[in-house]
UniProtKB/TrEMBL annotation:
GO cellular component, one term: membrane
Occurrences of domain EamA (ranges): 7-130, 142-271
Annotated transmembrane regions: 32-48, 60-82, 88-105, 117-136, 142-161, 173-190, 202-219, 256-274
Top-rank taxon: Bacteria
Organism of this sequence: Chromobacterium amazonense
Pfam families in UniProt: EamA
Membrane topology reported for the UniProt record: Multi-pass membrane protein
Protein name (record): EamA family transporter
Keyword terms, alphabetized: Membrane, Transmembrane, Transmembrane helix
Length: 285
């Protein structure tokens, strides 16, 4: 068992932070094509242990539910609602991981500290994602609901990883491959043909090795062995680190609002990840 599962979560979050920067290089390509190719590339990370890909049907179903179901709902949300609002609602998933933990993980209890940390993180993420400008409109309600559904899928998938019978981490390669093939089928059904250039193929390779591949292997190890309440609070660092990376690459800039968001996210992560105080022992009479 990993001694420090939070480190695996941090590794996944760091890789996901590169998604916006790498994704900008493939922005002209159809989304389902990008997801499908990236996931198929990511599956190759455990190809050397392909025998481990054979898992119970229920385990495989949960894996595809998470990887394919999440991206399917999210990309259709982006089609039916403005990306800004859809992305904000999508970032409910860390808060849902925290709040749904007692329902899906036996013996897990929420404290006010966990809830406060999750809420602070969400407010900080909201400021990062929206820049303080948000306008929800009823005409985009289907897209909003799909974005919330995507958040529900990813949070429940993450928690179900802890409930599944034991399986090798390398089985994530099978989840990635099947989900990638389903995404490519959606590409064929819903999108025009893609013709990536050499630079875009290089970006797709990096996406598959990092945020759309390697990150899932780290995430699985983190959630199966770690405390989902802490990991959920820590996950709000994803949009923060993504913004910092975009700024470093010249594709974004920090302002006072972003600095406030940084303080909120760091405060929420600290609240949610601090170890719990032991209950005071009763004094003998």
């Amino acid at each position: 068992m990993p001694r420090h599962p939070t480190l695996f979560a941090a590794g996944a979050i760091l890789l996901w932070a590169s998604l916006a920067t790498l994704g900008a290089l493939t922005r002209s390509l159809p989304p389902f094509f990008v997801v499908g190719i990236s996931l198929c590339i990511g599956s190759m990370l455990s190809l050397h242990r392909i025998r481990d890909w054979k898992v119970a049907p229920a385990t495989l179903l949960v894996g595809v539910y998470g990887l394919f179901g999440y991206h399917f709902l999210l990309f259709f949300a982006f089609r039916l609602a403005p990306a800004l609002e859809a992305n904000l609602l999508n970032y409910l998933w860390p808060l849902l991981i925290v709040t749904l933990s007692p329902l899906l993980i036996p013996g897990t209890q929420l404290t006010r500290r966990h809830i406060a940390g999750g809420l602070l993180g969400f407010v900080g993420a909201a400021l990062i994602v929206t820049g303080g400008k948000l306008s929800l409109s009823q005409q985009y309600l289907p897209g909003y609901l799909l974005a919330i559904a995507a958040a529900v899928v990813w949070s429940t998938f993450s928690l179900l990883l802890k409930r599944l019978p034991s399986f090798p981490s390398s089985a994530m390669g099978g989840f990635c491959l099947l989900s990638g093939l389903l995404s490519l089928a959606c590409h064929a059904l819903f999108e025009p043909a893609a013709r990536p250039d050499a630079a875009q193929w290089a970006s797709l390779l990096l996406l598959g090795l990092g945020p759309m591949g390697g990150a899932f292997f780290l995430w699985e190890r983190a959630l199966r062995h770690g405390d989902p309440r802490r990991i959920g609070s820590l996950s709000y660092a994803t949009p923060l680190l993504s913004t910092l990376l975009l700024t470093a690459s010249g594709r974004g800039e920090l302002n006072q609002l972003a600095l406030l968001a940084i303080l909120l996210i760091l405060g929420g992560a600290l609240l949610g990840t601090l170890p719990e105080r032991p209950a005071p022992k009763a004094q003998p009479l």
